[in-house]
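assembly run, all chains below
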Amino acid sequence: MQALVSLLKRDLSLAYRQRAELMQPLLFFVLVISLFPLGVGPEPKTLQLIGPGVIWVAAILSSLLGLERLFRDDFSDGSLEQLILSGTSLSGASLVKVFAHWVTSIFPLIILSPLLALFLHLTEPMYWALLKTLLLGTPLLSLIGAIAVGLTVGLNKGGMLLALLLLPVFVPLLIFATSAVEAASMGLQYNAQLAIIGAMLLFSLALAPFAIAYALRVSQN
Amino acid sequence: MSVLSVNNLSVVKRDRLLFSKVKFNVVAGSLTYLRGVNGAGKTSMLRVLAGLVEPESGEVLFQGEKIQDCRNDYALSLVYFGHKLGVNQTLTAVENILFWCDLHQVIATTEQVYKILAQLSLVGLEDIPVANLSAGQQRRVALARFWFKKNAKLWILDEPFTALDVQGIALLNQQIKTFLEKGGAVVMTSHQSLQIEYPTTEVTLEYNI
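ok done. output:
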C-alpha cells in the first residue's frame, strides 16, 4: 500500500514538474474548439448542433495526444523494469498511474469545459449533460487508452498505431455521449446514455488494470 | 544452498536462438560471472533470470520454485541492475532512492539516503534533478540501491562498471564482496576483467548464428 501511495505522489509531482508538456494537449483542445465558431459562423443553432460532437471529438483527440506520456519515460529510463521487479502489484500500480494521468491531464479539460460550452452556445441543460458525460467518459478513455499504450510502449513510433488501435474503441463512447447531450438539448431524459457509459466505465475499471499489467509485462520482451 | 537453478534454458530473441539448454546453479555466497562476446545473449540471460522476459523453453528456479510462481518472494530477495538505470531524470537523487525503497518495501530515512549518497561521492548533488548529473554520477545514484536492500539474497548486475571511474569501480567491488561474504549470491556480466578477490564461477555463452 505504501508503495502505491508513493507511486501516486511521485507521478503527481512529476506531472507538476513537466507541466509544460501537460499543457500541450490542453492547448490543442482549446484551440480546436475555439476555431469552430470562427469557421462555421456564429449562428447559435448550428453551433448547438455540432457543439457536443466537437467537444467530445476534441477531448478524445487531445487525450490521445497526452496518452503516450503515461508509460513512455518509465519505459525508456528503466523505472518500469524496477516496478515490475519490485513485488508491488502491477495492476494496482497501473490503476494508480492511470488515475494520476487522468487527474493531471484530463481533469483540466473538464475544468475548462464551461468556457468552451460558452464558445459553442450550449444551453445550460446541454452543458450539465456534457459535464456528466465527460466525468463518466474520460476515465474510460484513460483506462482503455492505457492498455494500448502498454502494448505499444516498446515500439519506437507507436503514436500512429496507438490512434488506429484506440479510435474504433472510442466510437461507442462518442455516440452515447453526444446523444446524451442531444437529448438534453430537447429537454428529454438522458439517464439511459449515462447508465451505459457508467457501465462501460465500471467494466473497464474492473478489467483494464489487469490488461494494462499484462501489456506492460509483454512490453519487456 | 542453491539460490537460483537454471534448467535447460533456451532463449529466442527476434527469431534468433541466442542459446539453448543452458544449465547452471547459483549457490549462496557465490559469484557467477557471465561471459560472452557482444550479441551472445548475456543481457537476455540476465533479463530471463530476473523474470522480466519469458524463456522459450526451460525454467529458472528460485530456491526450488519457478520464479513465475513466486514472484513476490523473488522480488523481495532480488536486486536487478540493468542497462537502463531505473532512475527518473526529472526527480532528484534523494527522491529517486526514497521512491525505489518504498516500491521495494525497504525502510529508509532521508538521513540514511544522504549518508549513502555521501559515501558514493555525491555530496551537494542530492537535491538537483538527476538529468543534470554526469553519466557516471547517474549510475552512482542507481547503485545506491545495493546499499539499501539488506535482506536481498541475489544481485543481478548487467555491465555495472560502465561509465564509472576507478574509485566508483572500487566502491562497487567492495560492496559486492561484502554482500558475497555475508552469503549473498551475485550474477553479473562485465567486459572489464573482474577485480574482485573472490572465487568466481564462469558461465560462457557462445555466439550462435
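Chain A touches chain B at residues 2-3, 5-7, 10, 13-14, 17-18, 73-74, 76-79, 81-88, 220-221 (CB under 8 Å).

The mean pLDDT of chain A is 91.

not gonna interpret more than that til we talk
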